[in-house]
Hints:
Helix content is 55%, strand content 11%. It is built from 22 helices and 14 strands. The strands form four sheets. It has a five-stranded parallel β-sheet, sandwiched between helices. It has a four-stranded antiparallel β-sheet with strand order 1-2-4-3. Strands 8-9-10 form a three-stranded antiparallel β-sheet. Helix 20 runs antiparallel to helix 21 and helix 20 (512-533) runs parallel beside helix 22 (566-589). The structure holds one RNA strand.
Amino acid sequence: MADFESIVLNSTIEAIKILYNSDVSPEVVQLQETRTEFEGDFTLVVFPFVKISKKNPELTANEIGNYLVQNCEVVEKFNVIKGFLNLSVKQTNWLKFIRNLSANETFGLQDPNSSGSKVMIEYSSPNTNKPLHLGHVRNNLLGYSLSKILQANGHEVIKVNLVNDRGIHICKSMLAWKKWGEGITPEKAGKKGDHLVGDFYVKFDLEYKKQIKALLEQGISQEEAEKKAPLIIEAQEMLQKWEAHDESVTSLWKMMNGWVYEGFSETYKKMGVDFDRIYYESETYLLGKALVQKGLEKGVLYQRPDSSVWIDLTKDGLDEKLLLRSDGTSVYMTQDLGTAAQRFEEYNMQELIYVVGNEQNYHFQVLSLVMDKLGFSWAKNLKHMSYGMVELPSGKMKSREGTVVDADDLVDEMVNTAREMSKELGKLDEYSPEQTEEIVRMIGLAALKYFILKVDPKKNMLFDPKESIDFNGNTGPFVQYSYARIQSIFRKAADQNIKMSDVQESTAVSVDKEKSLIRMLYKFPAVVADAGKNLSPAVIANYVYDLSKEFNQFYHDCPILKEENSEVRNLRLHLSEHTGKVIKKSMNLLGIDVPERM
RNA sequence: GGUUCCGUAGCUCAGUUGGAUAGAGCAACAGCCUUCUAAGCUGUGGGUCCCGCGUUCGAAUCGCGGCGGAAUCACCA
C-alpha cells in the first residue's frame, strides 16, 4: 500500500502540470502533517508555487485543492488558511489503513536483512579495572537500542564489544591486589568481581598518591614524583612482564579478569544488553603495525629520526598524529586501524559504527582519515556514533571524589523505588511475590532506560536521580502503564465474551481522539526510518510517549467496551490493540519490556 | 590559541529538507475516581528561542560576527 503522502505528492505534481503547465520536482513539494488546531490531515505549503501560478497564495491553494479533490483518490476535502492548503484524507482510506494493520504483524518494521546492508556496531567497550558506571550505561543502552533500530530498518546487525583487558591500568589493580589483597576473592569478600577489582584500583591510586606526596616533600617536582614513585615503576614492570608472557603475571591477570568478566556479564544481563562477538584488546593490540609499514612504503606516513611514525593531517585541518612510538610499540590508534581492517575483511560489512563518547570525536576523525589515506574504500563507512557526557547535578562524575554512579547500584535503586511505589499504590497486591518482582524489575529498568534514551544522544545530558525515579509524565513507566491498560481492556473483553471482527469501512470516525490516534499509528513506519537514519533512539522514545499520551486521552474520552454501537466499539478495540502493538514494538526498539499489568 | 559540539519556560527536554499563534514533562495552583487501572485526564500561570546583523514572502531552524558553556588538540586509552 502506497502511503498517503506519496499519493498526494504525485497528484500535486500532476496538478501543477495541468493547472500551470509547469514541471516541479518532488523535493519542492512540501507536505507536512496538519497542525492539530486546523482541520485536515496533511498540509501542502503553496508558497513555493505562487511564482509558477502567478496568482496569490490563497487562489493558488484553492485551485490545487479543487484539483486534488477531483483527481486524487485519497483526498476528500480541503480548506485554505493563508498559504496553507489543508487536505483531509477520505475516512474510508483511514479505515482501510486500520483494517490492513490486522493482517500486518510487522507493521513499521522492515523485513530482517531486507536492505541488503550489513552493519557492525561496537559498543560498551569497558576497561577491566573497575565496574561499569553511569557513563557506560548510556553507552550500552544507546548501542543496544541502535542495533534494534537498525534491524528494524532491514539491516543485518553484528553487535560487538571490544574489551580493554590489558594495559597499565589493569596492572595497577593487579599490583594492589598482590600487595594488599591477602588472597581475597569475590566469594570470600561476598562481592561482585568487577567491584572487588575496582576496589584495588582505587587502593593503588591512594597509595600512589601517598608516595608522590612523600617525594614532593623531599623537594622532587610533581612531574618527576609521578614517574619515580615506586608503585608506578612496579606497575610498569608488571606490564612488561605481561607483554613477555611471564607466567605468574599472566595467571594473576587471567584470574582477576575472570572475576571482572563474571561481574560484567551479570550487569549486562541485568541491563538486558548482549553481543554477537566479544573482542579482547589483549588479542588485538598488536594489530595495525603491518598497516603502518604499508603506509610508510606508500609514503602516506613518515618516520622521524627517533624512528617514531606519524601522519601529517595538517592539510585536513587536523594535527600530526603519532601511529607508532619510537620504541616501535603501538598506540591506541594503531590498534584501531588494525581491528577495523580485520573486521571488514572478516565480515565484509557496509558500515562500522562505533558507539563512543564525544570526547573521542577527534580520534575517530583521524581514524577515518588515516584509513582513507591508506587506500581503504570503506574508510568513509566508519561512523562514530558520538554521544554526549552524562553529568550529575553536582557536576561531572569524579572517581576521586566518589561521585561516580555505579551501574549495578543504579539499577537496584530504580527497582527498589518501583517496588516501593507499587506497594504504596497497592497496585500489585493480588500478585505472587515472583510476579511482583518481575513487574517491578520491568518498571524500574524502564524508568532508567527511558530517562536516558529520550534525550538526543549527541547532547550532554543531566542525570538527576530525583527526576529519573519519577514515574509520571514523560517516563518509561507512563508508557508501560498505557500498555498495561490496553491489555486490561482485552482481558475484560474476553471475560465479557466480546469478539473483534474486521473493521467496517462504513464505520463513523466521529471523535477527534479516534482520528488523532489513527494518525499517530500511521506515523510509526516513518518514525522508525527517521530513527534509523539519524541513529537516534530518542526519536522512538518521543514518539512512543506521544502515542501513549494520545491513547490515554482517547481512553479517557471514549468508552470502549461500554460503547453501545458495535461498529464503533469494534473500531475502538482495533485502535487499542494496534496502539498496544506499536507501543510494544517501540519499547522493544529501546530495549524496554512492557508488562501485561502494573 | 586551533578544531568540534551545545545555548529554547524556574528545572529537564522536544521542535532535522526554513512554514501557521514555539510544544511536552517536572515543579506551583485549581478541578475530575458508584462507569474499561487516577502510575491517568482537564485547566491556569510561566518565553528577548543567548545577542546582533544578513539571506527570504517567511528564521528557534540557514550564513556571518560576538557572548557563554563543554569536549579535544599526549610517545594515555
